[in-house]
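User: Here's a chain of 264 residues. Predict its fold as tokens.
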Amino acid sequence: MSTIAKALTIAGSDSGGGAGIQADLKTFHQLGVYGMSAITAITAQNTLGVAGVYPLPTEAVAQQMHEVLRDLGADAAKTGMLFNAEIIRAVAEEVKAFGLKKLVVDPVMIAKGGSKLLLDEAIVALKTELLPLAEVVTPNLPEAECLTGMRIETTDEMREGAKAIHALGARNVLMKGGHMQGDVVVDILFDGTAFHELSHERIHTRHTHGTGCTFSAALTAELAKNTPLITAVEKANRFIFEAIKTAPQLGGGHGPTNHWAVVD
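Assistant: Prediction complete.
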């Protein structure tokens, strides 16, 4: 067991268990990776929405990362909800201090119900401090629009957006097309040179809470296991598809996906 892959999530806590560190740790475990966490904020929420957001002190976030990494180490790490500029800067410093190379940045900005999970003043810090450290950044279309200032409604505009985000320093950009209309979802991976399109059937359901967290956690888990990037993206896509398809139908709002989904 000493060679087991290890992954660290740096994100907020979701009291409803469908997103944030709860979704990440469940996904890591399901995919055979030892999961560790650094909590950035505590949220009071359920499937109906976010009732409260309580960020942790910046020193607490940094110390969690420091203590985990100096002892256990991490083969890959991901960020989720970071909330403010101070936390983003502290996370970036720890990433650099420990030389984390396989960093997945999920630029969490707004909850499914519309609650803001990243302060406006933190967007600049995300772009300048964290994206240059990312192996992969995984924005959905509203997040990509926020990062680029572009309107993104077509696959051609997704490609342009990917190039603009890549120019901010991320080594690879995965543009998630779930917010576009149609029965087929198209995601686009840009590695700075070539575009790779991945598509799958859209599942029409309201039970999609935490899909971004779960997808990026699956991608992080695969990278921790040294899966090549394009294969890791394909596996993460299959996992989130099955997780949505077999969602447990919990709650009266946007319910969680199935984190014990099985993928061949």
